């Protein structure tokens, strides 16, 4: 039976009482799309999350993560009060301690001995105050953000090409384009609402062409007219070759371009040199020709690029290669055209605006601009403004490791999991004399090494603004009263600043005051340039004077009132002080004026370096089963996101709905590679290199390119005994942006055989480690632990049952159901309390013997004894088929399997017949992939 599961939860104790009478409009805390969300409560006192139909980013739609936000607002793993050296302290004492320690460190070792590491999870107001304190008053550039890890290469590309970090496009350009290129962007999983808009437009206009450039077969191929399954690290060759093709085909108007650009010939020379490598990137000549001709022949082309482009040692160059193609063919500054960098985090753009990247100042002011730096110092009334760029993320933690930085304040991020070279980061935090962490959780990998922990407010409690990927500023509004003593990040930073001696500059009373000051800074550049340009200069040098203005300008809000701030409507910047507020979409470069001093855009000559290519080397691996050596290659490891999870699962991991799809981390591997290494689906695989090793579950799929593997980023020591995938990633960075290369690590693989597999289902979290491989999964009503052990099945079963009976059961009214089959090495036992499901132990020889996925419904069984017994006694294949496929409408996987295997139904037919995909739409791409696999099997 289909049912629409609305995202709801029994109202928490700290819900804002006003919510019972009014809808609260806020924004989703996940990806950079910046979807509007409406929060309310129903008659049963449950929180209801719905899409905001008036918000231009999503028009009322939400993806699977957004729809299930209500499952994540409980207060588990929250810190009540500040802690110093493991001891609870008052706010006053904790703030005093941090301020005094920072002052002591600066006095003894200088201002470069301290650093902040901040996050795209912060609101713009938080970001602004942190940047102001470090760069404006401590006087060091040592503040960087985890956005360095996802979009700093795009920032560098924008600045080199346009003279400023400008995203020139809007979401609406996607639906007005004739060709949409998704380059290194799994839009279907990472920005689902935009992919939904693209899908709907493709249905209206089948002539719209979609090109996917990705080494993996992702859900995006659902819409692809052409999938270029390129070899990892070869995007620069492809786009340089496209530029060379455009020149050869006469698609470039050199004379016209000379009026608004420079550097074309040098870029063409580099592109021609790279085009000679085109036959080595793993694509057929036919597919390459089709891509080039589609790009050349259509006037309206949008190229969406994301982590597959950015997270590379040549990420900035790859971004510029894409921009070069758009500049050369005049596919920029017009409706339906342009390069479009999609940011990963909800406020990565806001961090760029306030200068949270180490190499910029607030308001897009650069360290090299002496006049504007002087203007900023006057605006802030400081004589200690930082004069040089600080350390970027990797260099910053290297400096901690080397003892150069003595005190670091980490805000709203988990660098021990997210940064590469895990062991070095851990060692650095262990060595650092003072580690301060502000976070909304009480424990995670990084917090293990914190000397001071400040309890910060989380989504639903915070108030401020965020800027999405199309430069649209929206409000995040509170609907929960803060848990315990949790405070806003801007307040925490301001209080430390006051205690450091900077009271006057940080006497903020509300986030509105901070935003207004931020708006004032944004207008500094334009105010300064206009006042410096007299009437004669303006008449004679109108073009260059205009070019000197900054694109980022929201000075129209410098004097906004509290009421205006509370009633804020989502708007794109720029919003200059001299102009009226523009609510409609805005597009940059329509007049072909850019932000370099000559008002011209720059073509950047870029060329592939050797390390940008797939340089897998021969490797000899011992096959333990055949007891002989087999020749294979080192694999290229790609890392990234799963559809239903977010970063390190601090929020999304609380939802049983979101963990149901991917209960454990998996290694995606091509069937031919798996066969050579004697790896079967569901096996554990040891993934290793010189930096570390990781045991992970094998997922054998044709969707993975040969000699390359993929592991998601969402697991860490907090929920997985093996830790995080970043321990395998080297700290190799882009030479311009400093962004790490998360997509091209080299690893070897070995099948790891175990003697037993188990699932332990309990009401509360377990602290005991039962085996080397153990994964915690949140399910509705409790937790499921996935365990792989060296013990035999009977021994593991006894060990788990002993644990449950000693530690997990209530004192009375317990009973149990046993359906074990020792001859089959399949042991199953469920425990009941007051006739209700309470715990379960399931042990088998292989992972495939256990009811993974479907067991997430364990605590939702009917009251009849037969239904409870069926959980542990039913035929395993039938149980697996009952796994939920469409989370929104509660549609079982068996319904989809039957429809696909019939071989007669289209994607539209399956949606109509089963209803799957008609909720948030997230599973439509999965159906498309299943159909694609079915077609491949028929061909074979």
Structure summary:
Residues 21-77 form the 4Fe-4S Mo/W bis-MGD-type domain. The chain has 940 residues and is of the alpha/beta class.
Number of helices: 32
Largest sheet: 7 strands, mixed
Mean pLDDT value: 89
The top level CATH class name of the largest domain: Alpha Beta
CATH architecture of the largest domain: 3-Layer(aba) Sandwich
Looking at the structure, the CATH topology of the largest domain is Rossmann fold
Report how far the terminal alpha carbons are from each other: 36 Å
Would you give an account of this structure?
The chain is built from 32 helices and 37 strands. The chain starts with 7 loop residues before the first strand and ends with a helix. The longest helix is centred in the N-terminal third of the chain and has 19 residues, at 91-109. It has 940 residues and is α/β, with parallel strands linked by helices. Helix 8 packs across helix 10 and helix 8 runs parallel beside helix 13. The strands form nine sheets. Strands 6-5-17-16-15-7-8 form a seven-stranded mixed sheet, with helices on both faces. The chain is globular. A hairpin with a 2-residue loop joins strand 5 and strand 6. It has six domains: 8-72, Phosphorylase Kinase, domain 1 (2-Layer Sandwich); 83-141 and 348-453 and 488-523, Rossmann fold (3-Layer(aba) Sandwich); 153-341, 3-Layer(aba) Sandwich (Dimethylsulfoxide Reductase, domain 2); 616-752, Beta Barrel (Barwin-like endoglucanases), CATH 2.40.40; 756-882, no CATH class; 899-939.
